[in-house]
Amino acid sequence: MADAILCVDDDANILDGYKRHLRKEFTLDTAVGPEQGLRMVTERGPFAVVVSDLQMPGMNGIQFLTRVREQAPDTVRMLLTGNADLQASIDAINQGQLFRFLTKPCTPEALANALNAGLAQHRLITAERELLEHTLSGSIKVLCEVLSLVNPEAFGRSSRITRYVEAIAANLHVSELWPIKTAAMLSQIGCVILPEVVLKKVYRGEALTPEESQLFNQHPFVAYDLVAKIPRMKRVAEIIKFQDKYYDGVGGPGDNRQGNEIPMEARILKVALDFDALESAGKTKTEAFEQLRQRKGWYDPTIVEALKSAFAQEIKYEMRTAVVADLVCGMVLAEDIKSSTEVLLASKGQEVTQSLIMRLQNFGEAGGVRQPFTVLVPMRGQEQKVDPAGP
Q: Which among 81, 82, 108 has a CA at the least distance from the CA of 20?
């Protein structure tokens, strides 16, 4: 709720006082006790600001605001208490990550000033998120579409694994999907250093020469260097750098991290990449999943199981034969699209975008596109009953 404030106290008379003094200036809700407060955050939130009393039965204000932070991390949290004990202040700030710690008695003017400051802070937080989720995401989308033009093979793979990591992360109830989705989209951008023949061998599961392997192993670090230069993208760059790191600590950047010390998003990305590699080599989903489970020490077992659960909820697709004129955004290519001279224009697994349609239309006018080809059309509202582990 934009600019909405929730005040929580176990004393209804105090809450009535808040309403009398503040309701003309603020959009104000109240809750009697922490349990009702949490229900309101769930049912009517998120709120811009939550103010809580410290001493409440069943759950004190520090515990309550910590729960609020878990449910709504962007909400600005304040604690109001008659207890001016120093340790209580320290605990409140450290555990609840509070914006303000106010002591009673607090005049209506002082409380109003604190609430205005809290609303201003919430606007800053939401503006930052707006920048990340819209402006920066739009720039990244442009970068990915450039990759699709320069290297369709690499872009096709990034498109496939982005769908995989989103499904896995959603199954694991990851609260912030933006970093892992962006890392998946950009994970293959380092492949611009690779000759086309090497990429084709990688995506077909063919053996590489020692020199080709050494070159391919550098692509996460090339991508890391590129992405880390973009403001606010350090976390995404770290995920990309660790995309080849085994759960037991082997591989990757060559540091000592292992197990849960490796960023969770990188562990998800590793599973998605290897699953896609097995599928690209001709394995069925069932065969690929079984091979993942047999690789001891390679993956976080929780994430492998999340992949299995994700496939149980996967959207069904209807396969259709199409030509360029039939393409609409949201379709997924079921096979590579090539020009009449066998130039790869778009890779299997790539989602159809407006820029891809325009490219194929232009290519069709200039040199011709091999068509018809097969596409996958999502069937919304249905669940796929495929269990990659078999019966």
A: 108
| CATH code for residues 4-126 | 3.40.50.2300
Q: Which of 3, 108, 104 is nearest to 50 (CA)?
A: 3
Residue 137, H or E segment:
helix 137-150
CATH class of 151-312: mainly alpha
Cβ–Cβ under 8 Å, residues 58 and 33: yes
Sign of CA dihedral 339, 345, 348, 351: negative
Residue at 207: amino acid letter? A
- Dihedrals phi, psi of 242, to nearest 5 degrees: -95, 15
Sorted by where each begins, the domain ranges of the chain are 4-126, 151-312, 314-391
| Stretch (H or E) spanning 287 | helix 285-294
Please give the DSSP secondary-structure letter assigned to residue 313: T
User: Could you report the average pLDDT of every consecutive run of 10 residues in the chain (391 residues)?
Assistant: 89 93 92 96 92 92 91 91 66 70 86 94 86 72 76 82 91 87 90 82 82 90 90 90 94 88 95 90 85 94 89 72 91 89 84 86 81 85 38 30
